[in-house]
Write a structure and sequence with these properties.
It contains 12 helices and 12 strands. The protein has about 325 residues and is of the alpha/beta class. The structure holds adenosine-5'-triphosphate and magnesium ion.
């Protein structure tokens, strides 16, 4: 069962370099959230701060009453066992087989017997589609396989909070679509709270219940997916449109002169943004328990949201109500 993660006023810098300031958000229990943001905005630093591997100077990260920033190290260590973290670079041990890599957290954190470890590891290997590759070394398999091995390792301790750092990086579009479906299926099976960091617009559009974006040392926004998907904040619109025009430059921030020149000679306006439906669990999977909780939560806060988001949310739920009550049209019955 998923656990809520509450982030309050989190501020992190390295020496004189400020990474982000005053980040506050709540990852709702069992829901899937995505964090977007250009390279270098501190998304990986954010994930590592949630699990207590990096220490922000200010703020709190509350999980079951434990503050992952300020609690005694022993409590942080215990709470960390609730997490599964899929690292951006896989972070596999090069000299260990995939099997041993994936078994590592079980051998490190539990006293399970080797036969039990084998059962769990092989189950996870099957879930991520790596059966047959368990004896290989990380150097002997493709980047996409290493990513999936990293995901399998993140899953062996039955995590209630799953953090994925760019699960799509280095994957082709088809593999990325499989990963998207896999993440939704995992959520249906585990009811775990999930946070996915990604640049991938297809994942952003189809996977999460909630979405946020980091830019210029701040959290631009975080909330139901419809808020970000309908936002006309320039930085959000530029990112979702994958355009050069806008506040994001090659090295993060554009200078004022470039922005002024763009304003004088605007390029073709972005087309209307369409909200595509969220992925459903694959046939045979249990329904996602977060769906009903999310619906209640979002409809409860709808009056506080911008008008475009409000109507998008009403559309979403009107459509799902129709799908639930109307019989499917017979095949070939025409329009
Ligand atoms: N341990 C560290 N010590 C010092 N600086 C660091 C450390 N870790 C990260 N940084 C700096 O923090 C900034 C944010 O890094 P981070 O890896 O979080 O970016 P990101 O948003 O994940 O980028 P990308 O999308 O490219 O993965 C970078 O400028 C990086 O150099
Ligand atoms: Mg990163």
């Amino acid at each position: 069962m998923g656990i809520e993660v509450v982030v309050e006023g989190l501020t992190k810098s390295f020496g004189k370099q400020s990474i982000w300031r005053d980040v506050s958000l709540t990852l709702p229990a069992g829901e899937v959230s995505v964090m977007l943001g250009p390279s270098g905005t501190g998304k990986t630093v954010f994930l590592k701060s949630l699990i207590g591997l990096l220490k922000p100077e200010k703020g709190r990260v509350l999980i079951n009453g434990v503050d992952m920033v300020n609690s005694p190290e022993r409590d942080i260590y215990e709470t960390r066992k609730l997490f599964g973290l899929m690292f951006q670079d896989g972070a596999l041990f090069g000299s260990m087989s995939l099997f041993d890599n994936i078994a590592f957290p079980l051998r490190e954190h539990t006293r399970k017997k080797e036969s039990e470890i084998r059962r769990i590891v092989m189950e996870r290997i099957e879930v991520v589609g790596l059966l047959g590759a368990e004896g290989k070394l990380p150097g002997e398999i493709s980047g996409g396989m290493r990513k999936r091995a990293g995901l399998a390792r993140a899953l062996v301790l039955d995590p209630q909070i799953i953090l994925c750092d760019e699960p799509d990086s280095g994957l082709d579009p088809v593999r990325t679509a499989y990963i998207s479906q896999l993440l939704i299926d995992l959520n249906a099976q585990l009811d775990a709270t999930m946070l996915i960091v990604t640049h991938n617009l297809d994942i952003a559009a189809t996977v999460p219940d909630n979405m946020g974006m980091l830019f210029l040392r701040e959290l631009v926004t975080f909330g139901p997916r419809e808020v970000l998907l309908t936002s006309d904040e320039p930085v959000v619109a530029q990112f979702l449109g994958g355009r050069r025009e806008g506040p994001i430059g090659m090295s993060e921030e554009k200078d004022a002169a470039t922005l002024a020149a763009e304003a004088v000679a605007p390029s073709a306006p972005a087309g209307p943004r369409v909200i595509v439906p969220q992925l459903e669990p694959s046939p045979g999977m249990p329904p996602r328990r977060a769906v009903a909780r999310r619906r209640e939560r979002v409809l409860g806060m709808i009056d506080t949201l911008p008008p475009a988001a409000r109507s998008a949310i009403r559309d979403t739920y009107a459509r799902s109500a129709e799908a639930a009550t109307l019989p499917m049209p017979a095949a070939g019955s025409g329009a």
